[in-house]
Design goal:
- The structure is a homodimer of 366-residue chains.
- In chain A, the strands form 3 sheets. Chain A has a 7-stranded mixed sheet, with helices on both faces. The first copy, chain A, has a 3-stranded antiparallel sheet with strand order 10-11-12.
- Helices cover 36% and strands 14% of the residues of chain A.
- Chain A folds into 2 domains: 116 residues, Aspartate Aminotransferase, domain 1, CATH 3.90.1150; 241 residues, 3-Layer(aba) Sandwich (Aspartate Aminotransferase, domain 2), CATH 3.40.640.10.
- With 366 residues, chain A is an alpha/beta fold.
- The radius of gyration of chain A is 21 Å and the shape is globular.
- Chains A and B meet through α1, α3 and α6 of A and α1, α3 and α6 of B.
């Protein structure tokens, strides 16, 4: 059996809704009403201005985001934001920005931030193998930090915060790359949120940034223009040629979220049911499947687990692939198995995977 | 009549070959042999490694590029390169890099370079409205410059260099965004070439950089990692999640260039015939169509011209659109008319436009 889009449990770039893929396919030759391929329409066209404007409205509506936030569509992924954030918000500051080190991706942000200014790693889960998130009493946030930075969901280790961190008098910056628009997120409690698209909301190649306008007023003036949020904000994400197709797909995904799913509350309910189904297989497997994350900090997006031996994990992956499932190998940094169940993965697909896992265990036990 | 892809004379993002659009369309639901949408395949997959590797080979073969050049696929467009180049090659230098100011885009590179180190504008065509390129005797290149920088084709004004500039003892850096892979370019005479994809080779969202390996050895070590060419070179363009789909389309275009067109010599011949056809309409129009560029510096990619009045230009654009042609409005910086005839525009399409222009003139004259 060949892999199927509907059974693509990849950690990212991840699956997209079938309806969105069909619309993207249609747009390759002809955007409805336009007569032209989406790949050949000018970013200065009225059509593209309306794409950006509808997409901004959709995100604002999904997140109930106030008007004093800019919504930007940039390139370079979260990696670029690891640098752009401190370039704008940390450069020249004397107090340290406070970073949490909760897994692979928040760790990647640290050296980039250190190049730009003083940071303090307030908590690190490294010694514990990033199997849990910190509790509030382990996080003595300082009122003087220019901002705090954390990653809401760690895709590699499968741990996720189920609450907003920090203090209301210190700007919160959050990398939501892997759970953005998967659930309501109290966006207005954050000063800056960034998320690359390739998990829940689109293809690789575009990054969404939500930034409260007061955060930009003190940014250094000598930044390269493409690294200055203000260039993109004042040009309405059309400062230089944006990734038109990737942005169009994100628009299609937000339409799907609004009109087919019904919004983020409904998306969250569905995502919870999907995650519960798989964690339940783990919990009832008599340790055949060993979840990595502490129960309280389990990710709703990435279910990371191990089997007894690497050889058995190989066998599991091969059997899964033969059954049409793909993308289940754990991240190369830690190995094991990882089922990523982003927005586009349907409940029936997760049920199929759960049944497959039960069957695989039964076959091993007999 | 609605606009047609084959009659899309947009300045960029521009038209792509029909065959490539069809293959991109197929890949939206299923990459041949993979079973998965191109939007949902991991950038760490064997498939993507083979895409990058075949694409590198194709570019190397098309340009006869020696092995001591890295071929990188980055994000951020030419705008990002305006900063990345001087960050790596100019920072901390005492002698000025020499820049040519030959039009809108080379002008955009200047302030970004000035932020990073000393530059000297060796020649500017601004006072003459960028209607011509400099002659060799107007370019007293210094042997001490860390590099020279120029734009091979100015898309806005429609002027293009038909020779390689500079001295062999000073590294040449060239923005070939709008004529890359449209003709042979003596790539091995350059130290660094960059080109965003959205003119001749793909959709917006990916930028090709060719850089000779000796250029990177003295780059500063404190660069943000995503702005350091070495990060991307050592990771084989998989340092952070690359724009998978855009890179795949560039691969499809290079296959088309190699296997359907036959290479860059053949592409260049075709492009010259297309340009000659349109310039011939201008030259035989008794000044009804007034070409912007000096004859010797006419672009083979962007034919920029004016009609007697803005009102007549509006009338021309409306009639063209009604006849199925799109993208003919000049760049917002200078107005007028611009026919961009990148690789994908066929000779029959250019013949249609030439006939349309003749007809339009005839109707006005009667």
């Amino acid at each position: 059996m060949t892999p199927q889009n509907c059974l693509n449990f990849s950690g990212g770039p991840g699956a997209l809704p079938e309806r969105v893929l069909q619309q993207a396919q249609e747009a390759m030759l002809c955007v409805p009403g336009m007569g032209l391929s989406v790949l050949g329409i000018s970013h200065r066209s009225d059509w593209f201005a309306s794409v950006v404007s509808e997409l901004e409205n959709n995100i604002r509506s999904l997140l109930k985001l106030p008007e004093n936030y800019h919504i930007l569509f940039l390139q370079g992924g979260a990696t670029q934001q690891f640098s752009m954030v401190p370039m704008s918000l940390l450069h020249g500051k004397s107090f340290a920005a406070e970073y949490l080190h909760t897994g692979y991706w928040s760790g990647k942000a640290l050296p980039e931030a250190r190049r730009e200014g003083p940071i303090r790693v307030l908590w690190s889960g490294e010694a514990e193998g990033f199997r849990r998130m910190p509790r509030d009493e382990e996080l003595p946030f300082s009122p003087e930090a220019p901002y705090i930075h954390y990653v809401s969901n760690e895709t590699v280790e499968g741990v996720q915060f189920q609450r907003v961190l920090g203090r209301d008098d210190v700007p919160r910056v959050c990398d939501m790359s892997s759970d953005f628009l998967s659930r309501p997120c109290e966006a207005e409690r954050f000063a800056l949120i960034y998320a690359h698209a390739q998990k829940n909301i689109g293809p690789a190649g575009v990054t969404v940034v939500l930034v409260r306008d007061d955060m930009l007023k003190d940014a250094p003036t000598e930044l390269p223009s493409f690294l200055d949020y203000r260039s993109h904000a004042s040009a309405h994400s059309n400062f230089n040629t944006p990734p038109v197709f990737a942005i169009y797909v994100v628009l299609l995904v937000t339409r799907w979220l609004l009109h087919e799913i019904g919004g983020l509350v409904q998306m969250d309910q569905l995502n919870r049911r999907k995650a519960e189904l798989l964690y339940s297989v783990l919990d009832h497997s008599d340790n055949f499947y060993q979840g990595r994350a502490a129960v309280a900090d389990r990710s709703l997006m990435n279910i990371a687990f191990n089997l007894a031996t690497p050889a058995l994990e190989e066998q599991f992956l091969a059997a899964a692939l033969a059954a049409g499932f793909s993308g289940l190998a754990g991240h190369r940094a830690i190995g094991g198995i990882r089922a990523s169940i982003y927005n586009a993965i349907t409940l029936p697909a997760v049920e199929k995977l759960a049944n497959f896992m039960d069957d695989f265990q039964r076959q091993q036990d007999t």
